[in-house]
Amino acid sequence: MKVLVIGGGAREHALCRSLSQDPAVSELHCAPGNAGIAQLAAVHPVDQLDGTAVTGLARELAADLVVVGPEAPLVAGVADPLRAAGIPVFGPSAEAARLEGSKAFAKDVMAAAGVPTARSYVCTTPEEAAEALDAFGAPHVVKDDGLAAGKGVVVTADRTAALAHAAGCDRVVIEEYLDGPEVSLFAITDGTTVLPLQPAQDFKRALDGDAGPNTGGMGAYSPLPWAPPGLVQEVLDTVLQPTVDELRRRGTPFSGLLYAGLALTSRGTRVIEFNARFGDPETQVVLARLRTPLAGVLLAAANGTLADLEPLRWSDEAAVTVVVAAEGYPAAPRTGDVIEGLAEAEADGTAWVLHAGTRADEQGRVVSAGGRVLSVTATGKDLAQARERAYEGVAGIRLAGSQHRTDIALKAAAR
Ligand code: AMP
Ligand code: GLY
Prior knowledge:
Blueprint: E1 2-7, H1 10-20, E2 27-32, E3 42-43, H2 51-61, E4 65-68, H3 71-75, H4 79-84, E5 89-90, H5 94-101, H6 103-113, E6 120-123, H7 126-136, E7 140-144, E8 153-156, H8 159-167, E9 172-175, E10 182-189, E11 194-196, E12 201-202, E13 205-207, E14 211-214, E15 219-222, H9 231-249, E16 256-265, E17 268-275, H10 282-289, H11 294-303, E18 318-325, H12 342-345, E19 351-355, E20 358-360, E21 366-368, E22 372-380, H13 383-396, H14 410-414
Parallel strand pairs: 1-2, 1-4, 2-3, 4-5
Antiparallel strand pairs: 6-9, 7-8, 7-9, 10-11, 10-16, 12-15, 13-14, 15-18, 16-17, 18-22, 19-22, 20-21
Helix pairs in contact: 1-10, 5-6, 6-9, 7-8
Bound molecules: adenosine monophosphate (AMP) and glycine (GLY).
């Protein structure tokens, strides 16, 4: 099978790593890729937001499957011309990807499907925003309606800051604050059948102890030893299946990866957000534990044959990933610095590096090219061992000014 992956972050590197280990995959391509992906796949300098160019590349390569990784091309509708050309594609249509692309749309789908989520108001003026903030009280949750790379949400006790964020967006969703731990649960779906993966937890704040600003995610681990045993089935029954059924009912079936960001509150499980693609960095730990070869699962989703698939097989091992970010991330990341120690980080064979914001310079050196530069992932017999191995890998990386959290999976491993 010839597979083309669209994107160039750590998520796509993790996807390429799993696909490269799948004996069914004869050729692996990625556009645009990054310096790490280039070691596993043929990379192509194609604009990932250009559906015509992506479809042209898939045709030229005679790809049997195209996997669209990031939200930007999905929301821009890159999957649509591929589907129209009869090419199997893993990733939702533009219509279905609105589940991530518009928070107001997601709220509407959840209301129609009876999915539990925070009560909310959609506001377009400062007056409406002020009224909504006062209706719920502090802490305030203000979300930009559109895509914002994990930076569109402000959670604050400061009413002035909440109003200022609302004023900076055209349309905001203001909602009640959800307490309780967060869980990311991914499901692969063909629009009818829904196959949940294993839950993971992401660390969204920049600094240790969940301090600092929201980011795209600074690390993740799986499994969650503290999660209630029936969680996956509950979320399948109350969130994932009803959402997929509602989108099919509307004539815009969701096919691809449905990501439920959940809060386990004192009043029950609630959806914080939906994403229309694999989460980053949770994918690094979820795929590290998946034993079923990946390509066949993604192809079955693309072809609408998930119901025929054998149950997924999972490793009993734990996995931890730690993101190494550039100095100044998330506000103003510094780029262009040489990254050293990539081989040392993988030297003992228990950890591996997945590139996010990297590129090769003229001299063939790997240099930083984005806020989240790379992540180091490891597995182990339990979270404590996986953590130890991941942090040993991080210690090998040398990047001027770089930052990482030191407490990824710390509490869960100490249980
Ligand atoms: P989102 O982009 O919607 O995932 O929001 C980013 C982060 O903001 C989430 O992971 C939560 O930590 C936080 N957040 C979002 N919505 C809420 C809410 N209703 N209550 C509490 N925290 C929230
Ligand atoms: N890890 C959060 C996200 O992928 O949106």
